[in-house]
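Margin note: ligand = iron/sulfur cluster.
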Amino acid sequence: MNKEQLIKVWKMFAEKNNFQLNPDNSMVDMVADGVLNNEKKHGMKLCPCRLRDGTRERDLELLCPCNFKTHKTWEEKGMCHCGLFVKKE
Ligand code: SF4
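Resulting structure:
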């Protein structure tokens, strides 16, 4: 999957779930690059802005999209930890 396809899938995922991709395209672009780099390095689409600890459990938590609605940043800032997905205005 290339970057354009990945962003399209994220967009559909966000629309289906009543939130949105960050309107700042440069932010979306940066996260997409990070996720795709992680896929090349580790074979999984892992979050680019949180740290791995080498365990499978942690890797599963970091699969993007993650369970970000349970994170503090969703309640406090209205966005996932990386700012990829944001609440609708
Ligand atoms: S915090 Fe955002 S970018 Fe990171 S894995 Fe979760 S949804 Fe993806």
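Strands lie at 20-21, 85-86.
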